[in-house]
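Protocol step 4 of 5: obtain the predicted structure for the target chain.
Materials: sequence only (see below). No template structures provided, no constraints applied. The aim of this step is simply to have a reference model before the mutagenesis design in step 5. Sequence pasted as it appears in the construct record:
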Amino acid sequence: MQELVTDQVFGSRDKTSAFYHCQRCDVRFQHPGLTPEQEKKFYAEEFEAFMESRAGTAGGWQSAEEHVRANEPNRVRRMDYLQSLIPPRSRILEAGCSSGFMLYPLIGAGHSCVGVEPSGKFSEFLKQKGIHALPSVEELVRTDLRGTFDLVMHFFVLEHIAEPRPFLRQQLDLLKPGGTLVFEIPNVADPLLGVYQIPAFGRFYWSVAHPWYFSEKSLRHLLVSVGVPFEIRRDQRYDLSNHMVWARDGKPGGMGQFSRIFGNELDRLYKQSLIQAGTCDTLIGILRKPK
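Step 4 output (structure tokens):
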């Protein structure tokens, strides 16, 4: 059984586009979505401007350099759990590496890194920085890089993929036996959507760029079908200040605004409470290729 979630799709030019909820597997999906031709043009030519329209100047989408600086807190947060998953001197692939902000410190730590990035602007920046980057995972599969990576990772990419199961299997093929695939996706149980039910956030959240939104249940349904051992972890990216600004102003951009008043410990406890309740904004998938 399927039911309408919303017909307000941020960035859609198709007035018939909407998101629906599959009651059986719990996934939310967009229909109709972008055609393959529209999708290719969108990511090659329009994506950064689209993201800037969503995130404003705080997201760093104005330039690759700004993107690297703006995402340093995300890099630090991710390394908290990635450290234990990365063997010394690993060969690492990041799909959808954008400005490469995750890769530069890893290269500095002695790892060999490859990126996949379809964006024309980011691809040129990566080339200038000496990152070996290809425009698609399909390009990697056609090369001799299959079975050569210790770690494949991507962050907020899977929800953009029209066919997520073949995409994950394709990435598993790129891993060495015993290698690890790690990814992050939005959690549809986001507290701004499900707990606080802020109307402005609902109009912002459902994006034309995302064919899918996953819950823990629907992500588990997907990963079981991939057929390798996996685990799902929870995380919370956005802080109490961000949530207060959404409630007050109905717009993004509030990260850290009141941290001087609240202090780090209150933010930590707030995020931990959301994670424990399952009403957090991020899910982490970890898949392990059998040896």
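Step 4 remarks: The longest strand covers residues 175-186. The chain has 13 helices and eleven strands.
Proceed to step 5.
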